[in-house]
Design a protein that fits this description.
Porin; 14-stranded antiparallel beta barrel; two-stranded antiparallel ribbon; 12% helix
Length: 505
């Protein structure tokens, strides 16, 4: 294979991502129909791909297996350090939502491209990834009425569309990956073994193992997009009053950063209690001698911990506002009358909140992975063009998930079921919106499959990731709205060894 083939492949790959991103930008308004996307930057999307979505969105301590397939952990870049094959991930989602009030309900459907990303190893020290995905989405239309004793029934119409997209470039590294092997081959280890200082040997070994598995990652994000919002105040048929319309558009364009760390240690044996009786001697049942020994585990257990942080950042934005009065003629066409406000290109800052969390993971061999996340976001510090919002509050999120695959190496059509990955998850957030002294909470349960496709070689693996979430957001109390939703995510993961220098063409 010649070098020009690699260049041609990269050009094709970049063109594919650019094409998919153009779809995202042109159709961002149909990603959601949530009335709660009216506030702030809209509905903040979960920054994970299909595999993590099936596990309740858990990602903080999610690190790679040692056997492919490998997945891109875009939310905690420390997880990129474990990528061992070049990885391409693409995905889209469909959401079916029932929006209910105390009096009525309506059904909405949204389908769109969700993400595209490419990850690749950096020799043996780590990995990197770049891609594009939506950061937030806006899509709503709310109509309400109000009785006025002098005017009559006034109608308010609130509409919005658009959103903010995110282009990211991240890397994760293991800077101390050889520490455990250096300890094994050191004079210190030989001395501790020679003088049977097993307790000290285990403590140092444990510390060196944590250091060797320690990974650190950082991601740079470019946020950009436009949010359009329109408010109509419509008076009943009268020649005395004109209707009023406000049109506002906000354009976002700036950089943000997030980072994370991960580490883990291995348990390869456990202590067990035994008992024995000396040969040729007789003991009563009460005089059995107990002792402890170690039993080697058939499948090693890895316990991991992770931490991530999204830094509080002020991002640059521009705001355009137009407010005018209008009448509707006999053909139903708007006829503008007076312009009350016309301000264009007003520069300002939107301050994003501090977000951080900690996660735990437990892996049994290459078959079972269990994840647990806990995160908090300081939304009370959110400012929209330097103006604090009373509708936002600090929030927290907890989630848990598991991934089980019977046998990754069970190749052959008869063993296909054994290579399928089975996923379950659950997530709860108390929500960052506080409307009418009511928190807008959100929770969901999830399930999914990772279906292997292709020829199944260790260096050429593809997986179709399917996940489904069922959840509820909001409440019908205090004249608010409740969303019951089913979200389907379809993702494709391709692992392949690229950039190989062949000796022969």
């Amino acid at each position: 294979m010649k070098i020009h083939k690699h260049i041609s492949f990269l050009k094709t790959l970049i063109f594919t991502l650019a094409f998919l991103s153009s779809i995202t930008f042109s159709h961002a308004q149909i990603l959601t129909s949530s009335p709660y996307s009216r506030y702030g930057l809209g509905e903040i999307n979960l920054q994970t791909f299909a595999a993590s979505s099936a596990m309740g969105g858990s990602f903080i301590a999610y690190h790679q297996d040692t056997i492919a397939p490998f997945f891109i952990n875009v939310a905690n870049p420390a997880g990129l350090a474990g990528i061992r094959l070049s990885t391409l991930e693409l995905g889209g989602q469909a959401q079916f939502t029932k929006i209910s009030s105390s009096a009525s309900s309506i059904n909405k459907r949204n389908i769109n491209f969700s993400y595209g990303s490419v990850g690749f190893p950096l020799k043996r020290i780590g990995g990197a990834a770049f891609g594009i995905m939506p950061y937030s989405t806006v899509g709503y239309k709310i109509t309400s009425t109000q009785e006025d004793p002098t005017v009559g029934t006034m109608t308010y119409v609130f509409q919005g569309d658009g959103g903010v997209n995110k282009v990211f470039l991240g890397t994760g590294l293991k800077p101390f990956r050889h520490q455990i092997y250096k300890f094994y081959n050191s004079a210190l280890a030989d001395t501790l073994i020679k003088y049977k200082e097993s307790a000290k040997y285990k403590r140092i070994k444990f510390g060196k193992q944590l250091l060797s598995e320690f990974s650190v990652g950082v991601t740079g994000n470019y946020l950009f997009g436009t949010i359009n919002q329109v408010t109509d105040v419509i008076y009943p048929g009268s020649i005395t009053y004109f209707n009023t319309k406000r049109q506002r558009s906000v354009q976002v364009s700036d950089f943000t950063f997030n980072g994370g760390v991960q580490t883990n240690f291995t348990i390869d044996s456990i202590k067990v209690r035994g008992r024995y009786r000396e040969k040729y001697k007789t003991y009563s049942a009460d005089s059995v001698v107990h002792y402890r020994k170690r039993r080697e585990l058939k499948e090693k257990i890895k316990i991991g911990v992770g931490f991530f942080i999204n830094t509080p950042t002020g991002i640059r934005a521009k705001q355009n506002n137009i407010i005018y009065n209008y009448a509707i003629d006999g053909f139903g066409i708007e006829r503008p009358k007076d312009t009350l406000l016309n301000s264009q290109g007003i520069a300002g800052t939107i301050k994003l909140p501090l977000e951080m969390g900690i996660g735990l993971s437990a892996k049994k061999g290459e078959r079972l992975t269990v994840l647990l996340d806990a995160a908090t976001t300081n939304w009370s510090g959110f400012k929209y063009f330097s103006t604090p919002s009373t509708d936002f509050k600090n929030s927290y999120r907890v989630s848990a998930g598991l991934n089980f695959v019977p046998n990754k190496l069970a190749f052959g059509s008869a063993n296909y079921i054994k290579r399928v990955q089975y996923r379950l998850g659950i997530s709860y957030s108390d929500g960052y919106l506080d409307l009418k002294n009511t928190a807008i909470s959100n929770y969901f349960v999830s399930a999914g499959l990772g279906l292997p496709v292709g020829i199944g070689r260790f260096d050429d693996i593809a997986v179709v990731n399917i996940s489904a979430q069922y959840g509820k957001m909001g409440t019908i109390t205090n004249n608010l709205l409740q969303e019951d939703y089913v979200r389907l995510v379809l993702g494709f993961t391709f692992n392949k060894r690229w950039f190989i220098k062949y000796k022969y063409d």
